Amino acid sequence: MKLYRFFFHYRKQTKGMTVHYRGECIPCIDVKCNTPVETKRNKQQPYLVMQGFAKSVSVEGDTCIIN
Prior knowledge:
By secondary structure, this protein is an all-beta fold. It has strands at 4-11, 16-21, 24-28, 30-33, 37-41, 48-54, 57-60, 63-66.
């Protein structure tokens, strides 16, 4: 199965998280990440994001699950 880049960060407006995967922006409250991640720092907002490679991303209620 092919791995795709994902990243997620805190979203101040909704006091939740946003997961970006395969060109999609997925708003959620919690993130459950089952893959290794690394930090990435930006000069503009979002200043800090967590990124990695995933096989799939699914949403269950208010939680985004990254596999």
